[in-house]
Structure formats: structure tokens, C-alpha cells
Specification:
single chain, 8 helices, about 20% helix, about 20% strand
Length: about 375
């Protein structure tokens, strides 16, 4: 090979190598329109076998997450320099214009080599998901489905859904939603076929419009009670609230010990009541609250609701239709099988199931938790009603 050609080839290879290790372009906040690719934002990018987080993109998790067909979720927050969110002890933090919140839905791959296309693991084991503390996802171990962005523009929050391509290299704009046939595979080999439904852009308001009068969107997870927990960041483990304050993303927050905290629904050492209430709060409270989409039902399920008829105890249904299952009360103390609430959680039939959006499967462990909680309640609806 002529020396000149060899030198050109070597320089080309060197350029490619350097390109692979080149830092990501800075996060790009788009104050209008709908970019066609997730990578246009430079928040997350699939490169080098990892779904990497850009500089300044802070991962976080929730004490008790919302259930979405057993999907795992990578959540992140990014803000422009010089601005911060304002702490709120009960509601969503007041995020500044320019904030980008991302949530990537993914599944671990089943163990073993013999798996079919669309097979995903039904597991709570997250050890193989993360590339490292505070880092992104190990792409060889996971199947990416979608990434949803909540973008704080001048006129308010905008939800923008993206669906990952088959090669898992980027996610494409999917304003009309998407349906993906998948199969949950348990460790014991049990298989469950289901359709994973990516909601269309307009459906995002069903959960994210906490005030159903204005229909203005806002995040659900970034509240003090959900974020008051530890997280393994790249520079060590730290409380999420304290970390957001330290990196300049949050102002006005008290010490974590003085902030509210929801229980982890899977923590067997936490009180059953606290676990069940945390589960209902994150899965149902964004609609079942005095201003939410389900405010006409008279059933409020957020964490502040007292344990009386407002929470459904001995409360007759007002707008459940076929969802009652011929039961008389939302919650019958001591009798979960006579209660409407677990009946609807146990269904995957449209018109009966609750929540109405966001799942195609039944969260078996979640239903078991709510049934155990109702069984522990004391009272007599014949007396209280």
C-alpha cells in the first residue's frame, strides 16, 4: 500500500476513534416545535453501548413509582445554568422555563440466549440495567421502548413522546402514540403476551393535568415526598433533595429530615398502611384529587386524604358504571373481595380497569398490597353507611 494511502487510512481511523469518544453536544432546549429525534435535544444519547446522560443531566428515582406494565424507568432532570426550581412541600416543584424532564421506559432482557423477538423480563431486579452509579443504561442488557419529555416552555409544560427504533440507536417523534407487542417472561419461564401502548400526545393530559379546569400540564413525580430518598450518583450516594440543592437545581428546600417522605411500596419493613397509601398516591392521586380528572367521583386517593369516606371507605360509587363489579362500596374494611377499588385494579378490561391509561397488564403485586391493606382495616359499612 502506498505510504500516502496508508497515512490517509490511519488518519481516518484516528478521526473515527476520536469521534466515538467526543463529548456530546450541549443540551439543546427547543422553545417551540417538535424535533423529530430524541437526539436533537442532546439529553440522552445511545453511544458506545450505553444510553448516556449528557453533562448536567441529573438522574433521579421515586420512593414508589407509577406502574407501567412492569417497565423500568430512567428519569432525569436538566435545567439551564443560572436557574433553579423552587421547593414546594406538598405539590410539584415550580420549575423554571428551560427545564427538560425525561422518562425512558425500558425492560431488562430475559436471562439466557433462547429468547424470541419482543421478549422482555418481568422482574424488579435492576442490577443489570445501569451502566454505573449516576450513569445511563447498559444497552446490551435492556430493551428501550419510549422516552417521554416534559419541556417547560414560556407558555407552560409540553409533553413530547419519542419511540425507540428497532436498532436502539435513537428514538423518533411519536405524537400519535404507538403500540408494541411484547411478551413478559418471568424467571420461572411463565410468559404473558401484551400490547405496550405509548399514549398519544393529547392523552398525556389525562394524568399530567392535575387541574382539570385549566388542563395545564405539570410533572407528577418531582415532589418532595417522592424524591426524599437516597440515590447512587457518580460521586457517591446522596439524598435526592440534598443533591438537587447542591448542584443548583433546587432552592428553598429544608433538610431531608424535615421534608415529607412517602414509603417504598416494596419495603416490607415499612408499615402496610404507609406502603398502600404511597401506592395509591402515585398511581391514582394525580386524577383522584379535588381538581383532577376524576374529581366528579368524590374519591380522592392522594396522600393527604384522611382515611374516611373521601378515601373510599364505605363510600358508594358515583361514576363507576360497569366498573363496580356489582359491589356496593369503593372500600369495605376487612373485605377486599367485596371492594370496588381492588376489583378495578385487578382488571385489564377497558371501561372497568383503573387506571384507564398507562397499562395493559395487571400489577399483581400492587393488587396484593391493596388487598392486604383493605383486609387490615377495621369497620362495618352497614354501620357507617
Amino acid at each position: 500500500m502506498p505510504k500516502k494511502m496508508w497515512m490517509c487510512g490511519w488518519l481516518l481511523a484516528l478521526a473515527c476513534l476520536c469521534g466515538c469518544h467526543r463529548a456530546m453536544d450541549p443540551v439543546a432546549f427547543h422553545d417551540q416545535g417538535y424535533p423529530q429525534k430524541l437526539s436533537d435535544w442532546h439529553v440522552l444519547q445511545a453511544r458506545g453501548g450505553v444510553l448516556q446522560l449528557n453533562e448536567g443531566v441529573v438522574p433521579y428515582d421515586l420512593n414508589t413509582p407509577l406502574f407501567t406494565d412492569y417497565a423500568h424507568k430512567l428519569r432525569t432532570i436538566w435545567m439551564p445554568k443560572g436557574v433553579a426550581a423552587t421547593y414546594n412541600p406538598t405539590g410539584t416543584f415550580d420549575f423554571p422555563v428551560g427545564t427538560i424532564i425525561s422518562k425512558t421506559f425500558f425492560y431488562p432482557l430475559p436471562k439466557g440466549e433462547a429468547r424470541n423477538p419482543g421478549d422482555v423480563a418481568r422482574t424488579y431486579d435492576t442490577r443489570g440495567d445501569i451502566a454505573g452509579p449516576g450513569q445511563g443504561l447498559q444497552l446490551a442488557n435492556v430493551h428501550l421502548v419510549e422516552t417521554r419529555l416534559l419541556v417547560r416552555r414560556k407558555d407552560g409544560w409540553v409533553a413530547i413522546p419519542y419511540v425507540w427504533n428497532a436498532s436502539q440507536t435513537d428514538a423518533m417523534l411519536a405524537r400519535t402514540g404507538d403500540i408494541q407487542p411484547l411478551t413478559l417472561v418471568s424467571d420461572n419461564g411463565e410468559r404473558e403476551n401484551f400490547n405496550y401502548v405509548v399514549p398519544d400526545q393529547s392523552q398525556c393530559a389525562s394524568c399530567h393535568a392535575r387541574d382539570w379546569t385549566t388542563r395545564a400540564l405539570q410533572p407528577i413525580g418531582p415532589k418532595a415526598r417522592h424524591l426524599n430518598r437516597d440515590y447512587r450518583y457518580a460521586d457517591g450516594e446522596e439524598n435526592e433533595l440534598a443533591h438537587l440543592v447542591r448542584v443548583g437545581y433546587l432552592t428553598g428546600a429544608p433538610a431531608p429530615a424535615q421534608a415529607p417522605r412517602n414509603a417504598n411500596w416494596m419495603d416490607a419493613n415499612a408499615p402496610l398502611d404507609a406502603r398502600a397509601r404511597a401506592y395509591l398516591d402515585i398511581n391514582c392521586g394525580h386524577c383522584h384529587n379535588p381538581k383532577g380528572a376524576a374529581n366528579t367521583t368524590g374519591l380522592t386517593l392522594d396522600i393527604a386524604t384522611p382515611e374516611d369516606h373521601h378515601l373510599g371507605i364505605c363510600k358508594p360509587p358515583t361514576a363507576a358504571g360497569q366498573g363496580t363489579g356489582d359491589h356496593d362500596f369503593d372500600i369495605v374494611p376487612g373485605h377486599p373481595d367485596d371492594s370496588i377499588l381492588p376489583y378495578r385494579l385487578s382488571s385489564a378490561t377497558p371501561g372497568t380497569m383503573m387506571p384507564e391509561l398507562g397499562r395493559s397488564t395487571v400489577h399483581q403485586e400492587g393488587v396484593a398490597l391493596i388487598k392486604a391493606w383493605i383486609a387490615s382495616l377495621s369497620g362495618d359499612c352497614k354501620v357507617l353507611h
